[in-house]
Write a structure and sequence with these properties.
With 445 residues, the protein is of the alpha/beta class. The chain is built from 19 helices and 11 strands. The strands form 3 sheets. A 6-stranded parallel beta sheet has the order 3-2-1-4-5-6, sandwiched between helices. It has a 3-stranded antiparallel beta sheet with strand order 7-8-9, with helices on one face. It starts with 9 loop residues before the first strand and ends in a 12-residue tail after the last helix.
Length: 445
């Protein structure tokens, strides 16, 4: 069986929240050994659960499931080991605990850095500085080390010291203005945290490129990747439109930015619903006409109603100018169809369309099932077996997929301390007594 792309490389993960956590699951899925450092005395915001390590049972039945939900609506003994928000991002990793705020913890971290290929972190500027973890210090441990830092706004500049998460990045970079319904206020939007995931993919890519560079030159490197600058690419067309043409873009809802090029009508339209949005029983379908040919195909599927026969709709410019009218008429037509049935009819006619699936329906979607996008994984503490997303890429010739189920807090302490570092049982017991080695978060949190 062939090796995986990053098999044999070790990543020391000092990251957190989504950007750092998702980046290392991408690297782990490619075969890298990811050592996630955790600390029983430090609760990294949104890294293992919300709002803290111990969630009252009543809270598990209130609010959004991805925020406070837990299996069986029961916190159990170790809720941080099976919280849905991040357990899905802890596959294929190893977790060890170490208090790197103390001198002996930093010394142990240095020993691990010496046997690692790359170190990454995405904390607020000042965190690593207080800990004394710098590129210079890491190079003392290993000359060709790769060190990536991904602060919110970069290591320099007016915003360098600002604390930020994905929602703040989106606001600063203008996403909340450009993403929303036409005429809506920015504060009417909900956060989608896409900036975190975009940053994560670029963190992973940057580390892979640095590894490739070192394999060819023998040299490590320091990488600074400001998440805000990276998130700017999400709306590159808006920045360029203003820079080149002086035009300020605005929110256009679910419409396409390519409307004048033929992508109109484009939107999300109601279908026959079983209930309201409050219960998740409303039904919608996304439809995009991409050119004159697909417009003619849509007319045919609709039975070529009289309103659709207007000659101006036969051109991209004509449809773009009449989007409000077209949306209204399409919504009247789609409202009488089941979303899955209409999806099949439109796709058969060559029209881009898809049902908007409420999360639980995605698990039963035929294509999702055919692609095996979710696979059963057994959680810690005999909580049970649940469906978790598998890696986003597959390497049929190598052992891909989920090689290790979601890792529990401190699950690999023995491996890190005894196998990698060669620490004796006596030293191990001492580090446990000092609080470095643990499998639960401190009761003081």
């Amino acid at each position: 069986m062939a090796k995986q792309p990053l098999e044999g490389f070790r990543i020391l993960d000092l990251g957190g929240v989504w950007a750092g956590t998702f980046s290392t699951v991408l690297l782990a899925d490619l075969g890298a050994e990811v050592l996630k450092q955790e600390n029983q005395f430090v609760w990294q915001p949104n890294t293992r659960a919300v709002p803290g390590p111990r969630i009252p049972k009543a809270m598990t039945q209130a609010g959004a499931g991805w925020v406070t939900g837990l299996p069986n609506s029961d916190p159990g003994e170790h809720p941080w080991n099976y919280h849905p928000m991040f357990v899905s991002l802890y596959r294929n990793k190893r977790s060890f605990t170490l208090d790197i705020r103390r001198p002996e913890g930093k010394e142990i971290l240095g020993r691990l850095a010496a046997m690692s290929d790359a170190v990454l972190e995405n904390s607020a500027v000042g965190t690593m500085e207080k800990l004394g973890i710098s590129y210079e210090w890491l190079r003392e441990q290993r000359e060709d080390i790769i060190f990536l830092r991904a602060p919110g706004y970069g290591l320099t500049g007016d915003y360098a010291s600002a604390r930020t998460m994905g929602a703040h990045l989106e606001g600063t970079m203008g996403h909340q203005i450009l993403r929303g319904y036409e005429g809506s206020e920015p504060n009417s939007n909900s956060g989608i945290f896409a900036a975190d995931y975009i940053a994560a993919t670029q963190i992973a890519l940057a580390i892979m490129m640095a590894i490739w560079h070192r394999e060819n030159t023998g040299k490590g490197q320091f990488i600074e990747m400001a998440q805000a600058e990276n998130a700017a690419a999400m709306f590159a067309q808006a920045y360029m439109n203003y820079g080149l043409n002086g035009q300020v873009e605005h929110a256009i809802g679910n419409r396409s930015i390519y409307a004048t090029d033929g992508h109109a009508p484009s939107g999300v339209y109601p279908c026959a619903s079983l209930g309201s949005s409050e219960t998740g029983d409303d039904r919608w379908i996304a439809i995009t006409v991409t050119n004159n040919t697909t417009w003619e195909a849509l007319r045919t599927v609709m039975g070529d109603p009289e309103w659709a026969q207007a000659p101006e709709f036969g051109t991209a410019a004509g449809r773009a100018a009449a989007q409000n009218f077209l949306d209204e008429k399409l919504a009247e037509w789609t409202a009488s169809f089941e979303d899955e049935d209409l999806f099949a009819r439109l796709q058969a006619a060559g029209i881009a369309a898809a049902p908007v699936l409420e999360a639980s329906r995605a698990l039963e979607d035929p294509h999702v099932l055919a692609r095996n996008l979710y696979v059963p994984q057994e959680l810690q503490d005999d909580i049970g077996v649940y469906q978790y997303p598998r890696p986003i890429y597959d390497f049929p010739a190598s052992e891909g997929g989920i090689r290790r189920p979601p890792v529990a807090f401190g699950q690999d302490n023995d491996y890190v301390y005894k196998d990698l570092l060669g620490i004796s049982d006596e030293q191990y017991a001492q580090l446990e007594a000092e609080g470095h080695i643990a499998t639960t978060f401190s009761e003081t949190l």
